[in-house]
Specification:
The chain is an alpha/beta fold and 599 residues long. It has three domains: 319 residues, TIM Barrel (Alpha-Beta Barrel); 176 residues, Sandwich (Jelly Rolls), CATH 2.60.120; 77 residues, Immunoglobulin-like (Sandwich). It is built from seven helices and 33 strands. It has an eight-stranded parallel beta barrel with strand order 21-22-23-24-25-28-30-31. The chain has a six-stranded antiparallel beta sheet with strand order 3-2-4-9-6-7, with no helix packed on it. The chain is globular. About 2% of the residues have low confidence. It binds alpha-D-glucopyranuronic acid.
């Protein structure tokens, strides 16, 4: 590519997203589904495995107009019916298909899902069909009519279906395709299992015709004595009132709707949410026709040079990384109990911080972590070699970022939005990620923006953090595998770090692998003793980084990855967990626990 073309591309990539996103919008997601009148569609769904996409294209690869013919019913014995949900297999929703059906373990392609349900429509309500997540691309049909599609495996999406629901039997059909593609987010290479399916819950959400759609309520930036925010109401008339009430603070404020949005602020002195006392207040939002309650914490988060301040107090983030891998049964996490098991292990470790890698985890996980007082790093899967020069890839990444922030913007526990993990440096990548960071700030100017960078360059004096992305973020994440991917464990202790930025650094990954209960010499790879040595020496190194404000070692629990096949050791699991997927703690768990107990 000529220099001119590269320059032109860089200019386009820098201004195009800004031109497109004149007004930075949240997504149209219904906020806080826990507080809504909802019907679960979870349970067994009929499925048809469709590797050749016969349910979508005819044999000449022309797309079928209705997109959905799989429910052909046999009307007479002579009818030719080859795809019939009624006689098909079933999968549990929520859940990945890989761990539910042996023949789907490695499957990447399309599975069609179908769910029948009875419903009684009411004239005075609206109904939304809400998916908490489906990996990777979903096309949704209701009663045979195509509603639309969603791309991205870890954020919610919804369709308003009031006019399509019938009295009595209705049916939803979903085409889920987890095929990895070069232009996707993430792209074709990832170090976690490509679990496909309707991986999180599905609901019918009923609301009054005039209903509260979204809200954003928190302390004013850098002012712990003012609570401010806004509420949007669908189908409301100009000038209608919205009431926000915080009973425990004896505070009520009324705001007037203008163009469907009501903004407010009120003076208050709430007990601030923090990791020792994760105080949440019941907040009641009401209009003439709708009433929502939420549990909201109030806190401030800032940086001051290389320090991170929670409520104005320097705070060291004692963390751990977590993938959404279910303990014991493995596969995608699908229940609150599994979230709590993982969070309790992080608590036992002595953590006040978790990095939810490498994609938005479930709303349940974020809410439970917040209740337990964890500071949260939440990220989108802009991972490794994303197609940074591709505008559609940027739009996809920005949409996933918008959906993540839209869903969790009221969660005090979330303090860091991350826009990338270990992305190779280039002008296109810098522009892509800088635009994402700017977009995140436009949506939410109160939280810190970060990214996990690759291990940095090393010279005789040690490692220098100089990635130009450091200019675009508030906190610099560094993934460092001294003692595992380079150097011996013992060589790590004396490595010195310098930074070109006066910003906090979080060691966002550090660690090494071990098979639980494999023992040997401390220089013997895969033994618990070796992993413990990696931790001992890296802790010594990190203690000497004066601009380090947190660490989130990789990783709490072993997790499934198709990059990790080593027989008798990995067996499709990345073994860098401090705990095995069966809940067995390795020696390194206690090394880190001891360090945190003294931090
Ligand atoms: C990388 C990457 C992780 C990966 C880990 C590893 O840093 O961010 O997703 O699992 O290293 O190699 O185990």
């Amino acid at each position: 590519m000529t220099v001119f073309k590269k320059l032109f591309l860089l200019i386009i990539l820098t201004i195009a997203p800004r031109l497109i996103a004149q007004e930075t919008q949240f997504s149209n997601l219904i906020q806080n589904i826990d507080s809504r009148d909802k019907i679960s569609l979870n349970g067994l769904w009929d499925i048809i495995i469709d590797p050749l996409e016969n349910g979508f294209y005819n044999h000449r690869l022309q797309e079928k107009n209705d997109g959905y013919f799989l429910n052909a019913k046999m009307k007479s014995p002579s009818d030719l019916v080859e795809y019939n949900f009624d006689s098909s297999d079933q999968l549990m929703v929520p859940g990945d298909w890989n761990t539910q059906m042996e023949r789907l373990y490695y499957y990447e392609g399309t599975v069609w899902y179908k769910k029948d349900f009875d419903f009684t429509p009411k004239t005075d309500e609206l109904v939304y069909l809400y998916f908490e997540a489906a990996n990777y691309e979903a096309i949704v049909y209701l009663n045979g009519k195509k509603l639309g599609s969603h791309i991205g495996g870890y954020t919610p999406f919804q369709f308003e279906v009031s006019d399509l629901l019938k009295e009595g039997n209705n049916f939803v059909v979903v085409k889920v395709d987890n095929t990895r593609k070069r232009e996707n987010v993430p792209t074709v290479n990832q170090d976690w299992w490509n679990y496909g399916g309707i991986t999180r819950s599905v609901h019918l959400i009923k609301t009054p015709k005039k209903h509260i759609q979204d809200y954003y309520i928190q302390l004013a930036k850098n002012d712990p004595n003012t609570i401010e925010g806004w509420v949007t109401v669908n189908n409301a008339s100009e000038g209608e009132m919205v009431k926000v009430n915080i009973p425990e603070l004896k505070k009520t404020v009324e705001a007037t709707l203008k163009n469907g949005k009501a903004s407010f602020s009120l003076k208050a002195k709430p007990t601030l949410w923090d990791t020792q006392n994760p105080k949440l207040y019941e907040v009641v939002i009401a209009t003439q026709t709708d009433r929502i309650t939420d549990q909201i914490g109030f806190r401030t988060i800032q940086t001051n040079g290389s320090k991170i301040l929670l409520n104005g107090k320097e705070t060291f983030l004692k963390g751990i990384c977590i993938h959404e891998e279910a303990p014991f049964k493995t596969g995608r996490v699908t229940s609150k109990e599994e979230c709590i098991t993982l969070l309790n292990w992080a608590k036992q470790l002595g953590c006040n911080f978790i990095r939810l890698a490498h994609y938005p985890h479930s709303e349940t996980m974020v809410r439970e972590a917040e209740k337990m007082g964890f500071l949260i790093w939440s990220e989108i899967p802009v991972y490794w070699t994303i197609m940074f020069e591709n505008e559609a890839t940027y739009a996809n990444a920005e949409n996933q970022l918008t959906e993540m922030i839209s869903r969790d913007k009221n969660r005090a526990g979330v303090v860091l939005w991350s826009v990338a993990n270990e992305t190779p440096e280039s002008p296109e990548r810098l522009s892509f990620l800088t635009n994402l960071a700017n977009h995140a700030r436009k949506l939410d100017n109160t939280r810190l923006i970060t990214a996990a960078l690759d291990t940095q360059s090393q010279d005789a004096k040690g490692r220098l953090i100089e990635d130009p992305l450091g200019n675009a973020v508030d906190v610099i994440g560094i993934n460092n595998y001294c003692g595992w991917y380079y150097g011996t464990p013992e060589s790590c202790a004396e490595i010195k770090w310098k930074s070109a930025y006066n910003k906090p650094m979080i060691m966002s990954e550090v660690g090494g692998g071990a098979l639980f209960n494999l023992h040997g010499e401390k220089n013997e790879r895969w033994t618990e003793e070796y992993q413990a040595e990696v931790y001992k020496n890296n802790i010594e190194m990190m203690e000497n980084i004066d601009f380090l404000s947190g660490i989130s070692p990789w990783i709490l629990m072993d997790f499934r990855s198709s990059r990790r096949p080593l027989k008798r050791i990995q067996e499709d699991f990345n073994r860098k967990g401090l705990i095995s997927e069966q809940g067995m703690k390795k020696q390194a768990f206690y090394i880190l626990q001891d360090y945190y107990s003294k931090k």
